[in-house]
Amino acid sequence: MSFSFTDWIITVVSRWLTKSDSLPRRTYFCDFNHIRKEVRLGDVLLIEGHNRVSTVIRHITQSPWTHAALYIGQLHDIEDIKLREIAKENCEADPERQLIIESEINSGTIISPITNYQDYHVRILRPQGLTAKDAQKVISFAISRLGRKYDVRHVLDLARFLFPWGFFPRRWRSSLFQHNALQPTKDICSSMIADAFESVQYPILPIVDKSYENQLELIARNPNLYTPSDFDYSPYFDVIKYPFFALDKKGAYHDLPWAKNIVSDDEINFISLSPKIQKFFTSPAFAVVGASVNRSKFGNKVLRCYLQKNKKVYAINPQERIIEGIKCLKKIANLPDNVKSISIVTPPPVTEEIVDQAITKKIQNIWMQPGSESVLAIEKCKQNNINVIANGPCILQELRFHE
């Protein structure tokens, strides 16, 4: 089999597209355990993906939904015995687990456990009025597509619709409607699912037009044009949401457990509404004085808290060489000049000595962990115009540290 330059380009692009991106995983939007409990045969799962192909699709569709999968239940839910055996042969997961059919770049059309997406933002789209018989037909159609390769070129073709024709040489233009456009030999996630529903004449986003006799009729859309967001836009699919806190009673939102004095920036950071804390986190880098190798100690937890939030942090402990992969410094004087904020996790008498060192180093912000503060240390900070946080707030709580 010949391997063209185009094939080589597509292979390289495929590898690049499967690299993870750095966008936040918004799992807090849905209760995945509730989704697993309520999902039904024939439901479409929309997923907010986290690789580079997701970024491409997100840009094309202007929607967060970048991947789609068809829920097929457990193996015993497949009524056709022959198809059940085919599914079993193609299923590497425990047959008692809840399963989906999806198309992925590196794997093609496969069966996967639904739990692959427990750490993703997931939404259920439920086809209105789909009969149990037709749900089985939709699942059967999807099973017949198992083993097909993922059509990377199809994704690139869709991307071309973003640009005017004149920018591309004719040989680069979209092949979506050329050759066997309606009989594809490769899949992408949404076109495979669209084909499955169109096999039972279930509408997704059909064109509504008038016939020659002036009667309304539906015109099927080319399945190659479907993207995951189209199932969300479709008036024929119900959006099923399962948030962590259901508002099923009037005024129930008044009882929600809101965190106080904190807001989110949609990344992994939470921003305190306290001016003192906001000023503390303006530092380009930080230090933990009293860092510990013992993971049960606060000196270790505070250090890991900074690391967990991707902040540049230094560890200060004259007795240790390395803590959590960070080379230890012996004293504050050894810190680089870009460290303007420090956390102190030491006994109160030691804290007083540390504050003296911080004044000499011209540290601007000091956070004394509960139990580390002393009246004298706090007063020294105030006399030297140091922004001091003491007697209450814990940085672990403010940054939502998780073990």
List keywords for this structure.
13 helices, endopeptidase fold (from Nostoc punctiforme), 7-stranded mixed β-sheet, 6-stranded antiparallel β-sheet, 403 residues, alpha/beta, Rossmann fold
The Rg value, from CA coordinates, equals 28 Å
Classify the oligomer.
Answer: single chain
Trace the largest sheet across and list its strands: 13-14-12-11-15-16-17
Class by alpha and beta content: alpha/beta
How does CATH name the architecture of the largest domain? Alpha-Beta Complex
* Measured distance between first and last alpha carbons: 52 Å
CATH superfamily of the largest domain: endopeptidase domain like (from Nostoc punctiforme)
Q: N-to-C SSE series?
A: HHEHEHEEEHHHEEHEEEHEHEEEEHEHEH
The CATH topology of the largest domain is what? Answer: endopeptidase fold (from Nostoc punctiforme)
Query: Low-confidence parts lasting 5 or more residues at pLDDT below 50?
Result: 162-168, 172-186
Instruction: Name the average pLDDT.
Output: 84
